[in-house]
Amino acid sequence: MRGRSKDRDLLVADIGGTNSRFAIAVSETGRTTLQRVTRFANAGVEDFPTQLTRFLSSLDMPLPARACIAVAGPTDGSSALLTNGRWQFDAAALKRDFGFADALLINDFTALASGVHALDDAHTQRIKRGRPVTGAPLCVIGPGTGLGVACVVSPGPTQTVIPTEGGHVDLAAVTSQEWSLKQALHEQLGTRISAEHVLSGEGLRRIDAVLRGEPGSLRPVETITQEALGGGESWGRRTVDQFLTLLARFAGNTVLSQGARGGVYIGGGILPRLLPALDTGQFARDFSDKGVMAAYCEALPVHVITDTETALRGAAMAFQQTRDRA
């Protein structure tokens, strides 16, 4: 039977609605590095313990004594429920069943936002110029399986990350086309339409179906993005343009709500794939289209997080910070 690794080693996980990412975070001389980074698809997997066992079985090293699991859903640190899935998480059960001496559950956007301040130019792409206010809050959003939102107060080693459920606010339509889209989705889904209903993988499919006049016929995300990136006019291109406009508006709205004059970081699995189709000038105009508050948004930069391991590193940072404050 394998023993446990040194106290400074930590199992970290980033659990979304579609994929699970795992790694071993090793801290030495004040620096955290990731080892054994692994991604598994969640489809067909019954529960989180099954997925965790799969990762642990793949390791050829001593098992960490501590774990920090970032979950795409609300959590109190001890229990969590995956918002876009059925998996449940319990820190006490993780310690009992897997032998961890310490286990912490955090929101996935707490993890992502915790790692943002340590990003460099190699891990991001700026899509809007601006001059952030030093020390001001950062806004972190991310369309993926769902739509995550967080705020980073006093970014840096002593920062405070506030996870929110901002992706579930009502969709704010501006143009007649956006109002028509919102009405069509309301009639189809029979519920209020949130930002996440359109700014997510499933949302991209919904926009495409409505624009094509076939609300009940959802095409794969891959088909839509390939059309959009193929050049020329296509339903995929129109869909992606509408998606990016709505994302820019939502990002600007979130900045105003959070007072995030430190700028915006956009993560998630969708936008990095769409960067070749992004009209940065149009994105900046939609982001700043805020009437009397236009200048407020015009001054701020927007970056896309292109590094896929930011949330894993952020989970390690959040774990250490949480335990240091206990």
TrEMBL record:
Q: Which InterPro entries does the entry mention?
A: ATPase_NBD, Bacterial_glucokinase, Glucokinase
Reply yes or no: does the keyword Cytoplasm apply: no
Q: Which GO terms describe its molecular function?
A: ATP binding; D-glucose binding; glucokinase activity
* Superkingdom: Bacteria
Keywords for the protein's UniProt record, in alphabetical order? Kinase, Transferase
Q: Is NAD given among the entry's keywords?
A: no
**Gene Ontology cellular component list:** cytosol
What biological-process terms (Gene Ontology) are attached?
Answer: glycolytic process
Which protein family is named in the record? Belongs to the bacterial glucokinase family.
Q: What is this protein called?
A: Glucokinase
Species assigned in the record: Chromatocurvus halotolerans
Specify the taxonomic lineage. Bacteria, Pseudomonadati, Pseudomonadota, Gammaproteobacteria, Cellvibrionales
